[in-house]
Each structure stands twice: as structure tokens, then as C-alpha cells.
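lol ok so funny story. i was supposed to be doing the assay writeup but got distracted and ended up predicting the structure for this chain instead. priorities right. anyway since i did it might as well share w the group, maybe its usefull for someone
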Amino acid sequence: MAPLWLMQILSRKALGLGVKRVWCRGIHRGSRLLADHPPAEPVTSISYVHGTSVLPLTSRTVQQCLWDTTQRIPDEEAVVVVHSGTRKTFSQMSKDVETLAAGLLALGLKKGERIGMWGPNSYEWVLMQYATAQAGLILVSVNPAYQESEVKYVLKKVGCSALVFPSEFKTQRYYEIVKKLCPEIDHSPAGGIKSKTLPDLKTVIVLDKKFPGAFQFQEVMDAGSTQFVQQLHNLQKKISCDDPVNIQFTSGTTGYPKGATLSHHNIVNNAAMIGHRIGFDWKKGQRIALPVPLYHCMGSVLGSLVMAVYGPAVVFPSPTFEARALLEAISRERCTTMYGTPTMYIDLLAQPDYASLTSHLTHGVIAGSIAPPEIVKKLATETAMRNIVIGYGTTENSPVTFSGFAYDDIFRKCDTVGSVMPHTEAKIVDTNTGCIVPLNSPGELQIRGYCVMLGYWADEDKTRETITSEKWYKTGDLATMDEYGYCRIVGRCKDMIIRGGENIYPAEIEQFLHTLPKVMEAQVIGVKDERMGEEICAAIRVRPNEECSAEEIKEYCKGKISHFKIPRYIVFVNDYPLTISGKVQKFKLKEIMEKQLKL
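and the output, tada:
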């Protein structure tokens, strides 16, 4: 491994920056600066940190990132889509992006209009991400699992002018759903829809087939004539890094989902900072296995956009997550890095030949939800993935705000989500008083900096509820911070179980249950109880070919955790209700458990 000072110099050269002194440090503490590497001494005396870095913020747009990297490594592979057999170099992809962007202008779409992308991972999804950015449009990431009422809500909320989707995927019949929402499409010219239900929607683009009232994707590519390419080039002067470029809808665990609106400045800088921390600025020939969805920030920013900023190839194993397809893609494409949620890693480790097929996989990023320590240990000791990085963030923060380092010790990797990201402030406050709490005390984690979203689209009230007048974003996550600035997530404010007056954090019990060898995954929730208010319920997935009883688990807990933390209810399950990004939907799990337990 190259020394830190050399890696930092190389990173500045890779991004076209001058070489400056690199022996300054990277977490703010009064007048002292600590560099973007693990601190060797305490950096804070209260639960507040400010990450700084030798890597400055950039004003580049998404398109400028792709263009710069294409100029630097035009013939290197950028995207590999295993399930469709697609392989594209940076020069090939950039040409396709420009052609599609010009085609979108040819359809009459104007700067600032919203265009929805609705479907699973594909090369066309990646093209749409960059083409909309180049054309000054705002890409709306639509959950591919959304049904009629959900799609209707999203399209109306942001006023989508256009919608792009495949004809079908698995049980989803996308065009049929649109036809139910907009029956006028059957008798409309392509690009001329006049819908009573969706008055803003004029244009529908189907990726793979020709339907009444819709353009086929190739028709849009063919429409990008020289005239519109020139128009596209002229438009670049009007696109600012502060323009909105992407609206990502939150999972909507309660009520309707909200459209987090992100700018070029938000996501380009977040991609630059997380790529720098992972080491893509100095590691050459990297290949990322990306099983997470592009509709989610982890896929589109940590995956696709990091590719455009630093140049690693991105490999898509399958349209949606499939453990076997992922494992085979890692082996065949000689992937060096993998991104995934804890559940994805658990399913990968359950494959009998995972060790032999992941010999090139030396780096891993775990994010999306809390990583069980036993899984982190297993990855570090039983696979070639010695360089595991734990990440934390939210869609509203573009998304990464805390991340570990590849060379953190195993205790920090297992117990924390790492250190604050550069150019980002973080504090932990008392949920009642709003005051910063002492070190190692739980409170709500709040974030401030370049990464905070522009706001929720067309929802000023929700934006004001979430972002304070001092520009702090309230994550809703309960966390603690140690004297080195490392953060530990202990649960959601709303997930905290209050049992007979005792505050219980589900994450603590989940991490303990993962130490039981027979347990593959554990999710802990609070279920209603007449006497105690809430009782603890553990929904457990047991390892293949293992048998386990509730009594065995309760016996294992005795004497190791407090008696009031031992789950009253233990239910064995085969899977959990998940969002499309792989996060466990605890509110749905709670409903399922209460119904099953007849509470």
C-alpha cells in the first residue's frame, strides 16, 4: 500500500488539482485540523465534529465529471451489464449519453423539467442518469416496484413531463399500469399525451418495445441530430452546479414518500469524497460489483457517479439483487470491490462456494442499515475482503455523511459507522432540549454542510420540519459519538422501544443475537403490550441446515444481556419485508409480527 502522503498527492493529480501540502489533518477541533485518515488521538470533547480535507469541494457538474474522465481514460471499461451482455468504454458511453441527451431535446423537453426513470438496473438507466444531467433536466428516480397509486402520487407530486420504463419486468407490466392511469395514451401521438389524471405528462418512452402513444427508446436516440447536438453544447453554459439534478423519493415508512431534491454540487462532491476515502483516487484497475438499485442513492452516487469521478468500471450482475448472479459476476468479471446492504452480504456468505469465487474481491462497502458485527468479522476473516468500509448516510444527505477507513481496526468496523466525511459537520443532540449531548451519550444525529439536500420537492412544510433554520438536517437516527469522532448508530428515534419506562435500542440486541452461531440475521422490534406498553420481539433467520428454538435463544441471552433486553417473543422467519434498496421495513415487520402473535 502506498503511504498516505503519496496517496493524497496522487488523488489531487487525478482530479486535476495542484499538489499542496498534505501534512495538515482532517477533523475540526478548535484551530486544529486533522487529516482525512483515522485520528490517533482524541479530537472532540463533546458530541460535535467537523470533517476537513486536503481535497477541496468542486463546482463541477455531473456531465463535466464524465467528460473529464473520458478525456483521461477513453478506452477503459466504464459499464458492464452482465444480464444484457453490454460492455461500454468511457468514450462509447459518453457518445451514447450525448446522443440520448440531444434526443431528449429533440422531443421538446426543456431545462428544469422532470423526467421519471422507472425500472430495474440497466445500461439505459445509467444513460438516462447522465443524459438528463447534460440536458439540464431533473431525473426522478422511481422505485421499480411502485404500483399504480404510488406512481400516480410521484408523477403528480413533481409534475413529470416524461416517464421512461421497460415494457415489463417480472410481474410488473409497466405500460399497462401507465395505461390505467392515462387511458388517453392509446389514442395519442407519441409526445402529445393529454391526460386528465396526469396533466404534466406529455411523453412516454419505452425501453424495449413500441406501444401506442409512446416513443421507443431507440427512436429517441435516433432523434438526436446535429442540430440538437449543437443546441446541447450551447446549453452547457447555462447549467450550474447548484441546479437540481435528481429527485429521489424516500422509502416512505410513514405516510407518503417525500422527494429529496439533490443538486449537482450535492452528489458530485459526495461521490468525490467517498471515492477518495475508499481509495479510488489512487487504486488503478478497480471494478465495482453493484447489486444495489440505481434508483437509490447508494447505486447512483456511490456506484455510477463514483465511476464518472474516478474511473473504476461498474459491473451490474442482474436487474435486481440475486445472490447467485452476484457471486458469478464477481468471479467472471474479477471484481475488486462490492457495495451492498448487510442483508446482501449475509446472502452472499450463505452461498457454499463464496470463498473460492471472491478471491479478487479485496474491498467492500456496507451501508443502507446497521451492519451486524459478526458479519463484518466473517467477511474480514473468511474472505479476501480485508478492506471493509462501513458507510452511513441518508438520501437527504446525498447520501454519505460518515464512513470508516479501510485500515480501521476490526473493533471500529464492527461497532461504528466510522468518522465524519470531509466538509461535513455532525452533532448529536438531546431530543428534548436540542442541546449537544456529552460523549458516548445517545441523542439525535444532525448533519450540516454541502451534502444537505435543496429540500423536499413542493413540500415546504416537511422541509422546515427536517432542516432547521440553522441548516442542520435532522436524521431521526439515535447515535453516540466517542472522543475520536467515531459514530455509533443505536437505532431510529421512532424505533426505540420503551418497555415499562426502560429505553431499549433494538440495534444493541440485534448485534448481540448475531453472536449466536445458528443465527444468520436478526431484526428486533417493539410490539404492543397492555401491561408494559411495548415488549421486545426478535424476528430471526436461522442459518441453512440449522435448527433452533426460542428457548435455546433465551437461554443464550441469560447472564449476557440485561433481563429486560431479552426478547419476550422470538419468531423464526425466512425473510423480511424489504425496500427495493434492501433495507428492512420495520414498520411492516411490526405489523406482521403483531398479527402473527395475535396482539
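Residues 1-34 have pLDDT under 50 and may be disordered. The two ends are 56 Å apart (CA to CA).
back to the writeup now i swear
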